[in-house]
Specification:
3-stranded mixed sheet, globular, 149 residues, mainly beta
Length: 149
């Protein structure tokens, strides 16, 4: 299985971040013990940051912050080939990752969805966390009751 849940409702799967070709998206490799956390620190270019399992972030000019599924997504060993953001209509920013497990490349997985008001560049942490957890659970086929908020 690409992921699993345990008695503490922690969702675990194998993945490791690598930058996009050409340096368009400066995602840093956070190693095999990173937890998924995303901070939007430049809303004009929609760049992101990732947290470590202790909750600390790489430095940046933070405009909004949230953890997907309350910091319960952790990563171990296989590569994420690319990660990118797509600016949708009405302020949506959807962050995708192209994940490979072993020799089989998966479809694009929606990691999270952020929603901002037209007049507010600060993202709603509550909405982003809930939306990201729900959509991630839907795509992976996880019962939403397994997720912590």
């Amino acid at each position: 299985m690409a992921f699993s849940t345990d008695s503490s409702n922690k969702i675990t799967f194998s993945a490791n971040f690598v930058p996009l070709p050409g340096g368009d998206f400066p995602v840093q490799n956070i190693g095999q013990s990173g937890c998924l956390g995303i901070r939007i620190y430049d809303t004009s270019s929609t760049q992101v940051q990732f947290c470590r399992c202790d909750g600390s972030f790489l430095p940046g000019n933070i405009l909004g912050a949230f953890f997907v599924s309350a910091k319960t997504l952790c990563f171990s060993s296989a590569p994420i080939n690319s990660i990118y953001a797509d600016n949708g209509w009405e302020g949506d920013t959807r962050i995708f990752a192209d994940i490979e497990f072993g020799s089989r490349k998966s479809a694009e997985i929606l990691l999270s969805a952020l929603h901002s008001d037209y007049n507010d560049d600060i993202y709603s942490a509550t909405l982003a966390e809930a939306q990201g957890s729900f959509e991630f659970a839907q795509i992976l086929g996880i019962n939403q009751s397994k997720l912590k908020y």
